[in-house]
Write a structure and sequence with these properties.
This protein starts with a helix and ends in a 10-residue tail after the last strand. A seven-stranded mixed beta barrel has the order 1-2-3-5-6-7-8. The protein has one domain. Strand 5 and strand 6 form a beta hairpin. The protein has 137 residues and is mostly beta strands. It contains two helices and eight strands, in the order αββαββββββ.
Amino acid sequence: MRLARWAMLAALFTTPAAAADSVSCFNDSGPKGRIGLWTYEGQTDWRVARQARGATFVLGFAPGRDEYQVPDLGYCFFINPNAAGAVKCTSGSLKVSRLAARQAMSGQYRFVLEDGQVKGLTFVASFCPPKKPAARE
């Protein structure tokens, strides 16, 4: 029993702290050939997340490199539905370890936002088609 308790404590201190559930997906909808990476916080399914309009971290990059800094990105910001406007990234990087068009993307990012928040994640993202505009009635 004592050994099990120590094992649990050891795991607690050696396992990185996990943020709330999140799910990432990507698409290639940009007119300049950029890839858009979307991370939906508090969700585990991007299809559901798109409908929920929750906290979302978004960035866009032109494929062809393994690592990107903020100036290399077309856009990088965090949208919190409970706050006014988007908060831009001021520093940080994206590392892409795999990008297979319309299949999967993996990598990691860590960015500091204008308000001091830090957004970081090691992710595996599936392809999510760009949203289609809502039909007008």
